[in-house]
Amino acid sequence: MDSPYFSNNTMVYDWSMCSPETTTNTSSILNSAKECAVCGAPSNGYHFNAPSCSACAAFFRRTVTLNRNFQCAQQSICRVNYTMRVICRACRYHKCVQMGMDRSAVQPRRDCNAGRRKMLYHEIKHISSTTSTISNPSPPPPSQIPSYSSSISEEISPNLAIRNDCFEAEQLLDDLLREERLFNERRRMLYCAHSSISDLLTNDNLNDIPFTCSDLRPLTFSGIQKQIRPQILLIYEWLRGWRHFQMLDTSDRFIFLRRCVLYHTVLDPSYLTYRLGFPTKYVMFNAMYVGIDENDQTGWEDEDSCIKSELKKKLYRPLMERTINEIISAMRASNLSFVEFVFLKALVSFKASASSDISKSLKKFMHSHMDLMLKALSLHYQSLGLSKEETAQRTGNLVLMMSNVFAVGMECLESHQKIQFFDLWQLDDLLIKLINRSDR
Amino acid sequence: MDSPYFSNNTMVYDWSMCSPETTTNTSSILNSAKECAVCGAPSNGYHFNAPSCSACAAFFRRTVTLNRNFQCAQQSICRVNYTMRVICRACRYHKCVQMGMDRSAVQPRRDCNAGRRKMLYHEIKHISSTTSTISNPSPPPPSQIPSYSSSISEEISPNLAIRNDCFEAEQLLDDLLREERLFNERRRMLYCAHSSISDLLTNDNLNDIPFTCSDLRPLTFSGIQKQIRPQILLIYEWLRGWRHFQMLDTSDRFIFLRRCVLYHTVLDPSYLTYRLGFPTKYVMFNAMYVGIDENDQTGWEDEDSCIKSELKKKLYRPLMERTINEIISAMRASNLSFVEFVFLKALVSFKASASSDISKSLKKFMHSHMDLMLKALSLHYQSLGLSKEETAQRTGNLVLMMSNVFAVGMECLESHQKIQFFDLWQLDDLLIKLINRSDR
DNA sequence: CTCGGTCAACGGTCAC
DNA sequence: GTGACCGTTGACCGA
Q: What is the reported pLDDT for A366?
């Protein structure tokens, strides 16, 4: 009664189909089971918890058991369908995962001492692969590739499970770093005043902050006002870079976007200030800054037809000071690294969304996703050679920072709801829609 | 004999040879499978549906993938056997087909990263760089254009449609449509005033224009001035969506971006005006419009601290009128479809860049890329059921439109170079860098 | 019904 | 350009 179907429904369908129009129509569910979710070929049922054809199932099984890691030659945007499925294996694998295939559903290598012939086949394969690796001058990979020999299958299985998790975690870190770099590239193009275009277009730009000190300009509120819309777009692009975002329905996307706009607006300036401006300049998302010191009037002056100096200070100095005291100082104290910042941003974004009014199954998925994030962070620390104590301490710092970000973010939200309600100064109308409770 | 193999073989071969000869003696099938039907060499089974040796199979595969067409120096009566097989390729290929080899059994190009060495390399990299992707210099040479074997089509026979080309053409159309839709989604988020956020975030938005009439607002030059930078970013994102863009070096990227900014600035307003504003409103990229009629002053008024009405009209009315007369009217006359617009945009972008100062090999690649585009367009017309005459006529229209776009674009460029030189009004500094010859 | 194993037939590679 | 070589794929099977 429960076996595969029940688990299928809770794990996959509940959250991939939480949009009303799909759940109402049962035939679409039946149709989706008849068609491979990965390549669209006629499917004969479920494989590894996703409606898929046997070919994609075999592909997925091979990829997992051999612990392969593919790299897309393009930008991980290859179309995967019946005719194109063999073109890019990286994207085919990602689509398998996206469509709900579960790495843990791949069983450990079975004991195959069923017949002489099979053993013979394996021995031959084993010998030939061994000799080829020996003849190769490159470092030998035998520890990575599972042996074809069936005799040690029992010993492999626990390691294999760990490796699967590592694989996912590693992938996650790669995704997050890629998206942050893209975000920086876009910000450079939008806000940099002095860089040459060659600097913007180059491939080698691995900087973890988008600006340099020479890009910083005194803040004007009218400048912020005009550039908040592109900034929201960039946050949306960051969110879309997350592999599972496209599977969310509209209302869940809305929740995620709202949360990210709110908390990124706190986090990004914090990191920029920590890296570029502290202790004199508080740097905003668009490389504009205000003076931190009370006597420094930069950015706090009157702006005709926009906002008065007094109101600026009344509304935003407390927020700025709280951000400095509770977030930026913590970043400085722990000497926050780029990777840690990227994790902090992701954890804040997903934790905030998971605490919102989303479907139960999505909530469950989000929590396992955050577990994976912590796992990836731990692996990162491990690769840096940190001890367990240091790892625990830095992870704890990050989690403490998260709660500070939530607190400051809430104050920021309330403050802007007040601004909008009393019309203290003109906010962008898309921002208002994201601040308000209802969507209109 | 080997019972499992035998049953396997019969099952597989029955499926592939579902012909009336299945009643023939099984042994004769096995005998015939033992020797190559083409050259008589010992064969190891079926290839492309004919019992053949691996050499003849490889020969057939190369011939099909490279779409080669051989000519026999004799009278197409050459004997093809084990010793003579390399003498006449025309007769060898002919015999391949005669013996039942099926061109459609040759599959599309597979993942190029799948090679033995490269795979090993990736796996090693995978191990060593668990998390330190930052320090990874990412060895694969980006400036090198890979093999693109399909572009080496010297001896093309038009009646033998290349399967691979069809795949690539299909992929190309898909990419272009996807990028245009993404472009529209981004424009909606940047410029829409009245849509609800749910409308922006929904997946089902397949509209081919980003705005509705209710989004249109009277133009202000200061508004254009402020929003040109996000627009350049969107053009950059469009360009980056092109699969091969990341393989270009910085200077080539610069050339492409310059060309696209120029011609998209002509093309996008043209399409928007044709679809939304004509004959009263000329619609810009950000949903702002000016009046087309000389008596309609909308958008042409004085703007304090930016630009005077007189200068606006002097600088931009001629450009607008030329765009209407030469481009928009042509779009209207041919009732340009969304897909055609997408192709027009791509053709203009790539043709303009290919005519610039880029490396010879890139130029060659660009031309074959444009050929592929025309092929994809032709396939699209074919799928719509258009006759050859109609296809030729519409393709001709599109090519004529291209040259008009180039002409108007050149005038637009000169006009803005003049504006920048005499400082007639303040242009965005990134735009200036893209207009000027040198990069500084 | 969906696992894993199997192997003929694919594609890519690279000395020759 | 050729063909031996090897890795990958997917229809098929038993469990």
A: 87
